[in-house]
Fold this sequence. Notes:
The protein has helices at 2-7, 35-44, 83-94, 106-121, 150-161, 185-188, 195-211; strands at 19-23, 54-58, 66-67, 133-138, 167-172, 219-221, 251-253, 256-258. The protein has a 3-stranded antiparallel sheet, with no helix packed on it. A 3-stranded parallel sheet has the order 4-5-6, with helices on both faces. Strands 7-8 form a two-stranded antiparallel sheet. It has 261 residues and is an alpha/beta fold. The longest helix is centred in the last third of the chain and has 17 residues, at 195-211.
Amino acid sequence: MTYANAYGRAGVEDRVCGLSLAATDGTGAVTPLTPVQEAAAFAVSNGIPPTAKVNIVYDDAVVPSTLLTVSKSPSSGLTDYGLDALLCLHGLALGRDAITGDALTGAEAELAEAIADGIEEIRATGDLRGKPAVFVTGRSDAILPINHTSRPYFGLNRQVEGVGSELRYYEVLNAHHLDVLNGFPAIGASYVPLHHYDFQALDLVWDRLTNDTPLPPSQVVRATPRGDATPLAQSNLPQIASQPPEADLIRLIGSELIIPD
């Protein structure tokens, strides 16, 4: 929902696919935030619902302005996670009706075209023009899968810039980008903090820019989980190596990106 609004440059008043953002109560009804809650949301919210009591609301549901997850679709009267709204979003991405396959018309067609234009505007070229850059990505990321984020961009960059590229890619085992979830014991026992490597990467880039120190080669970093009831130790978090073993190097050979297991 947020992507459709952003790519299409829709305003809050457009309520794309009958959706908006609002605070909701335990029944799924819209409820106002108090000034204290608003201040707290401004301080700690990441802006992506659900966050700080703010959720996606389906304004066109059978019961208007209902929390999307418990809403009833107008077409069926069923409590189906606002399926009508989701099919509408899917149709805007496709540029045609998600069920019938028919071309969209009127305002929907205009918005679908705007969304397509927005996506085209942010399409990556892979050309960093020789600027030093570092990607740090957790292999266990289920929200931003590496096969659709860092891996293809790194491969594209190497095809565009070749051996002159200053982009380095460090793929960390047993890590994801939502370190806050590691505060839950079962998750913290299974994953390492990716921020540890973010900080190291910032130091590496700083050293490259100020002292002309070469960035370490792209590599797999073999971090290991601490396990249950075991404190996290430095042994769980090996450093990004300045000279990694051959078996850990990430390379583009021809048109194939080689990622060690």
